[in-house]
Amino acid sequence: MRRILDIRPVPAGLTHRTTMFEIFFDLVFVFALTRVITFMAGSPSALTLAQGLLLLLLLLYSWSPYIWVGNLVRPDVGPVRAVTLVAMAAIFVAALVLPDAWQQSPELFDAPLTLALAYVVGRAVQLVILFWASATNPPLRSTLRFFTVPVVLGWVPLIIGALLGGAAQTALWTVAFLLNIGGARIASTFRPWQLRSVDHFSERFGLVLIIALGESLISAGAGPRAMAPVGSALLAALLGLTSTVCLWWLYFDRLASAARDAVSTVPGERRARVAGDAYGLGHSTLIIGAIYVALGIEEVIAQLTEESAHPGRLGWEAAVALYGGAALYLLSRLVFRRLTVGAVYPPQVVAALLPLAVLPIGRSLPPLTALAVLTALLIGVTWFERRLDRRDERPEPAQPGPS
Fold this sequence. Notes:
Blueprint (H helix, E strand, L loop, with lengths): L1 H4 L14 H23 L3 H27 L5 H20 L13 H23 L4 H27 L1 H25 L7 H29 L4 H22 L2 H10 L5 H36 L10 H25 L5 H17 L4 H27 L10
Helix pairs in contact: 2-3, 2-4, 2-8, 2-11, 3-5, 3-7, 3-8, 4-5, 5-6, 6-7, 8-9, 8-10, 8-11, 9-11, 9-14, 11-12, 12-13, 12-14, 13-14
């Protein structure tokens, strides 16, 4: 028995990279994110979009501690892998019931309560692994003392909200999220997390973003599968593909590597704080923006292949998802750039706000035209950012030497 208790997690190395097991774990997590799209697409409304945002935030800020776990210990080795599989099962269960997150039923464990309990299990597994890893790491144990209290307190409004349902559920789940994010912020302020490998940290966030962008491609292909791939549906799918390529280019072409290199040069404990702010704040909302764009593309395809609730026009809900999601992505990209690379120029801010400026017009346009306008905007922003990158890379003119 003592031998079992003496087993310790395998520490992650300074050059640790993302493992295949972590990618498998992230696929289950992104499946949960895509189920939020199913929830919002079921009956699009302002309330549904807001509730979907709350679900995305709860999911993202329950997933990000697993990146810190994988940065500290090997999650694919020994008992840690076994415990993480329990968390995967909890996330999978949460994903299955997500579309009915606000639908109460006479059953003992209805969808809201099942979702809340699955969330609690996922967070509890994080704490178990982190406390286990901190047995020989006093600074980490000190951080966890600050971190655990608000996390556990957040479970109370989550479960009570699931039992009450309706507006009370929305309000209490918002409180649960604020307790989680506020507690994490306070904990990292007093006792910073330990960041071993910047490559592993940035890679995990990047992989989830690219899988989220892949959801846009799935959304773009959903319409043509429901009908012959000709005419407006095929054109909309190609526009969705082009928009997704632009979103990919704006992050992965230059910014991802530049941000990773910038964080790597930050010294000491400040590196963990900078990485936590940049990827936790800027990068997480990048993922949310990509999910909303995917929802908007799916709505456009649906309106082209089915009878629309807004004949002849896109409508507010779809326009907010499509244009608002793009604006959130572009603005989050600038926040991320500012927190890592440091340089953000006023024209970039103006370009990022363009989708919001066009949103009131876009909601009155035919769905295909609205998607075409957004695609043209993203192509323009991508071209502008590419020119800006080239300008930044231009070498300084050589100074003449002494004659």
